[in-house]
Each structure stands twice: as C-alpha cells, then as structure tokens.
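Record 1 of the preview.
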Amino acid sequence: MEWLNLSVRWIHMITGVAWIGASFYFVWLENNLNRANPKEGLAGDLWAIHGGGIYHLEKYKLAPPTMPENLHWFKWEAYFTWMSGIALLCLVFYFNPALYLIAPGSSLSGPEAVAIGIGSLIAGWFVYDFLCDSALGKRPALLGFVLFVLLVAAAFGLSKVFSGRGAYLHVGAIIGTIMVGNVFRTIMPAQRALVAAIKEGRSPDPALPAKGLLRSRHNNYFTLPVLFIMISNHFPSTYGSQYNWLILAGIAVLAVLVRHYFNTRHNSHKYAWTLPVAALGMICLAYVTGPKPVSTAPETAKVIKYQPLPETALGGVRAADAPAPVTAPAAPAAPVASIDFEKVHVVIQERCTVCHSATPSSPLFSAAPAGVMFDTAQQIKLMAPRIQAQAVASQIMPLGNITQMTQQERDLIGAWINTGAQTN
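->
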C-alpha cells in the first residue's frame, strides 16, 4: 500500500507539473506577444531562446490559410492529473476513512463519510457549471466573488464533518474537478468547434470561445490555491487549527492576488503591491496560528498537581486513569513545577509508539512515519515541539485518534512541555 501510494502520488505530481506548467507558459506567451505591426493574419509573435536554441512563435488572429497536418492539443495532462488525484483520494481517504478522513469523535460511518466526499465533488462541478452559464457569467468579477464565497462555505462545512486534512484535500479535489471539467466540457469542445469551422470554411460561433476563455481564466486563478492544498498536509498549523477554513480562505486570497500580478505585469506593475501584501499576510497567518505563550512570571505562575496514577494489572500505570488536573495559585516566589516525565512516558508509549517506533505494532506501518520515533526519552524530548504542535495544539495526532488519547493526556503532555520538557 505504501508503494502504491508513492507511485500514484508521484504520477499525480508529474502530470500536475505538466498541466500547470503548460498553463503558466501559455499565459506568459499570450502576455508577451509582440503585437506592434504584426504580419498579415497574425495577432502577434515572439522570439525566445531556450536550451541553446532560438524559437520564433506566431499567433494567428484566427487560423493559418491551411490547417497544419499535426496540431498539438493540450488535454491529457489535465485528465491524468485528475484521474491520479482521484486514485490518491481513494487510497488515502476512502479505503480507510476512519484513519484520515473522519474527524475524531465524529458519529459518521465510513460509507457515510465517503458518500459526502464524492457528493461534494459532483455537487461542486454542477453548481459551478450552472453559475457560469447563468447571467453571472456575463459579470466575471461578481461571478468570481460568488464562487469564492461558495468554496469558503464548502471548506467550513467539510471541516465540521471531516478531519482538517480531509476537509482541505476535498476542497482541493472540488477545485481540481472544476478545472478538469472546464477542460473536458468547455475548453476542448470550443477548440474542436473552432477547428471544424475553419476546415469547413464557415465563421466559428463566437459564444463557445468566449465561454472557453472564461473557464480558462478561472483555471488560471485556481492553480495557486490548489498547489497550496496539495502540500498543506505537511503543515498541521494550517489544517489542524480550529479556524482551518478561515486560514484556507486567507491563503487563497493571497494566492489569487499574487497570480493576478503575474497575469498583468506585462502591461504595468500597478498590482506589484500584491507581493508585499501577500508576504505580510503570510506572516500574520503564521502569528495567529502560532502556539500561545505560557506565562512563567512568579506572580502568575500555576502549579499543576497530579495525583499518583493507579497501578495496572501489568504492573505499570495508565495515564488515562489519572484524575483531572487541579490548579492552584503558586506562592509568589515559587518556580513553575515540573511534570513527572514517567507519567508522560507512559502516555506516549500507549498512544504514540504504536506507530512511532523502530518496530511499529500498528499493521498500518512497517516503519515509523516520517522517521519519527519515541522509543527513548531523548527522542521524545527532541520531538517535544512537534508533539506540542500535533498532539496538543492541533490534536491531529494520533491519526483519527485510533489509540483514543484523552484530553487529560494531552493536557499532561502540554504541561510537561510548557514546564521545560524535563526527562530526569
């Protein structure tokens, strides 16, 4: 399964690079054509050098006098990107929905979650297609705003039933389905109709190219948000936040602003302000999603008291059996109390080393995910910041909470880290 996941993910990345790369190149080409005094029948031309060769590219206003025998079409990059993406969605989320897809504590069953996921992709395309063909299609700016609001609403709704990671990837899959639907259902038919009309010597229907241009423009602005979603599963401070849908909306706005600058900079740099604004926006998002500082001032310090844990039948202790922590004001001069590492160690062994060990006991993994292991006190201390981010702050670990880590156990680990993560 791991190698199948790797192979499909690699194919998805390769075909995605080909599709988005071609899209970016043709936008650049269109924006940089020399349109001053073009030759008869041409809209413009461009000279370029690449890889040791000089190229001369020409764009016709409509078509050359005689259609070429070999005319290259750009479609399979889009189709294979979508097909590999759907295959990856099935491998990661649908074959074992309890692990990555369903939010911990949710009452959804696996089939219900999968049905919601597939339904969101189908509904996303049909709603988008209907809006584009409606009167809104004649008002591109308003249509863009409505589409943005609906996608944010989808992110909010999915975040309430799926894990943060599952919600993000499904928003990306909705956008990806819209993009490939645009190619398959609108852009390619418009191009085929144009070529057929030219071959038959009749005037092409101007409505189809206009629709294709609108959908192509949408695809262009969708690309950067989709690329972010593709890498977002590596960054739990985004999808793991309780405001993950707002974070996604904010990053999408910043990405669209940056893309707009690159789409328009050939005419002027009046949108150059979008670049520093996007950088500032990312800094602000990093700040608001960061862990809140814990005060250690003597006058406000709290001593966290835990009662000894009861012995289990195996002679050890279970962190889950601990009573709720009791907080009491510390004496003005008292330092912050440290937490007994042995209690933390028991929790991590029960809840985390099932997967994160040199010899995982979980059948899901033959090796520790991402090489992260908690077999020794030194390894646990070294990984304390990541434990804080993923098990305490965002609570995305354990995956799907398959080991049933309790809130009290998370609080215990958080208190241990906040008081210095001492292991002795």
